[in-house]
């Protein structure tokens, strides 16, 4: 294997080999559009309004952002996307993109959808993982009450049991089909009960290999310590720790809630503190790679570069089955495809589902691409460089 060079993520030929000229032109148009803050602000509030009024806006999304950021509306459509990724050495992790439901029947439906996806993944070895959210299995308010130390009523106790039963059903199906389940980390004020449930499932289902993974948000200043505790618990309990490492998606919300309610912010004071913890977490996992199965889920070129250099330096196999890199479908292609070409296990987070249900996810992607400093500029620059190279 060729040694890692600092410019590994600059290779646009590898990054966009899966895109036709027409698809590249469309991506260029899309990132130019979502690079315009005003346009995104107006567009997203109009889309939000149209959703509330049940206006038929799905075709607009389908023609613009959907295909760029999502796998497809059905498994048959996803199969085509997955095959295209695999042709370039990249795996897929599926996420049923429907969010923010609050009724018991919605929770049961989400479980059905998740099990369908696990069975699909079981038959399609290029899909390694299903990503889930426990707030898809139960009420946000219930988790909030548990974490706040409120006493549950008899009905709420029964509600909680149903959440655990749903989660357990998904994990059982995952073991049966040999598919990993990554549990998303959510807001800090509901995260404790989510962690407790995930820890229980890991102890139960990770005895032979990591099937269930928790997510560690390193923008929280207590998470590196928690990761260390979890590693020790797994070693003591004789199971593999599954750890997806992220920085965290709810920074503004976390800070403003803490300020409003007058408690210390759980978030690091600055980005440097987050970066330091993130890279330390990657190294901790690499140093205990027999005991942890890790997913480096980041769009930071710097963190990914540090991680792959560490892997080589520590003499860990690049395609070690306990290491997976992941970026969102439609973003960070220069990272994912160059990692795969260099022999690392790389995959794309691929949301799927009916266009209208995935719209909130798409709105977040558009907003994120305007708010993340330089992200859109970087994506656009890489696309333009590849268009020029192909001429
Ligand atoms: C496959 C995948 C799965 C994910 N799953 C989850 C999940 O389960 N839960 C979740 O919360 N997020 C999840 N995310 C999102 C992730 O947490 C980040 O929001 C996103 O990836 C940006 O961080 P980065 O490491 O890619 O890159 P960077 O661009 O290096 O970092 C940006 C991030 O740094 C942090 N940050 C920025 N400025 C500051 C500051 N001033 N002070 C403190 N922190 C700061 C924020 O977390 C911000 O999102 C996932 C991302 C991916 C790719």
Please provide a written account of the structure.
The protein has 391 residues and is an alpha/beta fold. The chain has one domain: TIM Barrel, CATH 3.20.20. 58% of the residues lie in helices and 12% in strands. An eight-stranded parallel beta barrel has the order 1-2-3-4-5-6-7-8, surrounded by seven helices. Helix 6 (104-123) links the parallel strand 1 (90-96) and strand 2. Helix 4 (58-69) crosses helix 15, helix 10 runs parallel beside helix 12 (271-287) and helix 12 (271-287) packs parallel to helix 13. The two termini are 30 Å apart. Flavin-adenine dinucleotide is lined by residues 184-185, 215, 217, 219, 246-251, 267-268, 270-271, 274, 297-300, 326-328, 349, 372.
Task: Enumerate the strands of the largest sheet in spatial order, edge to edge or round the barrel.
Answer: 1-2-3-4-5-6-7-8
The number of E-state strands comes to 8
Distance linking N and C termini: 30 Å
Largest β-sheet summary: 8 strands, parallel, barrel
* Number of H/I helices: 16
CATH class: Alpha Beta
Name the helicity range.
55-70%
Mean pLDDT: 92
Strand % is: 5-15%
Shape: globular
Q: What are the bound molecules?
A: flavin-adenine dinucleotide
Brief rundown of the structure:
The chain is an alpha/beta fold.
Features:
391 residues, alpha/beta, TIM Barrel, 16 helices, 8 strands, 58% helix, globular, binds flavin-adenine dinucleotide
Question: Secondary-structure blueprint of this entry?
Answer:
Elements (H helix, E strand, L loop, with lengths): L11 H4 L5 H14 L2 H16 L5 H12 L5 H13 L2 E7 L7 H20 L3 E6 L7 H8 L6 H24 L2 E4 L4 H18 L6 E6 L5 H15 L3 E6 L4 H11 L9 H17 L4 E6 L3 H13 L9 E6 L4 H9 L4 E7 L2 H17 L3 H16 L1
Parallel strand pairs: 1-2, 1-8, 2-3, 3-4, 4-5, 5-6, 6-7, 7-8
The structure holds flavin-adenine dinucleotide.
């Amino acid at each position: 294997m060729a040694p890692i060079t600092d410019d590994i993520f600059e290779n646009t030929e590898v990054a966009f080999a899966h895109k036709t000229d027409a698809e590249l032109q469309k991506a260029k148009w899309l990132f130019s559009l979502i690079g315009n803050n005003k346009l995104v602000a107006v567009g997203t509030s109009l889309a939000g309004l149209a959703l509330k009024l049940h206006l038929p806006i799905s075709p607009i999304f389908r023609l613009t952002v959907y295909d760029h950021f999502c796998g497809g509306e059905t498994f048959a459509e996803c199969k085509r996307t997955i095959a295209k990724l695999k042709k370039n050495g990249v795996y897929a992790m599926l996420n049923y993109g429907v969010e923010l439901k609050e009724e018991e029947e919605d929770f049961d439906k989400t479980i059905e959808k998740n099990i369908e996806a696990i069975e699909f993944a079981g038959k399609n070895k290029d899909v390694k993982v299903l990503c889930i959210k426990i707030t898809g299995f139960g009420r946000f308010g219930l988790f909030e009450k548990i974490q706040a130390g409120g006493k549950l009523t008899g009905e709420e106790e029964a509600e909680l049991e149903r959440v655990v039963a749903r989660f357990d059903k998904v994990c059982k199906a995952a073991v049966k089909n040999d598919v990993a389940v990554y549990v998303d980390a959510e807001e800090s004020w509901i995260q404790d009960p989510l962690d407790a449930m995930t820890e229980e499932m890991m102890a139960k289902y990770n005895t032979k290999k990591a099937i269930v993974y928790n997510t560690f948000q390193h923008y929280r200043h207590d998470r590196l310590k928690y990761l260390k505790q979890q590693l020790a618990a797994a070693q003591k309990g004789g199971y593999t720790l599954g750890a997806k490492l992220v920085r965290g998606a709810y920074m503004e919300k976390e800070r403003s809630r803490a300020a409003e309610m007058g408690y210390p912010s759980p978030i690091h004071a600055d980005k440097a503190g987050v970066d330091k913890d993130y890279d330390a977490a990657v190294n901790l996992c690499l140093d205990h790679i027999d005991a942890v199965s890790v997913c480096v889920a980041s769009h930071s070129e710097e963190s990914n570069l540090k991680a792959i250099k560490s892997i080589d330096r520590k003499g860990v196999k690049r395609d070690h089955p306990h290491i997976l890199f992941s970026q969102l479908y439609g973003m960070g292609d220069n990272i994912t495809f160059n990692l795969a070409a260099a022999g690392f296990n790389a995959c794309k987070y691929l949301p799927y589902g009916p266009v209208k249900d995935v719209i909130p996810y798409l709105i977040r992607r558009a907003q994120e691409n305007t708010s993340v400093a330089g992200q859109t500029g970087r994506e656009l620059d890489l696309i333009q460089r590849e268009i020029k190279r192909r001429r």
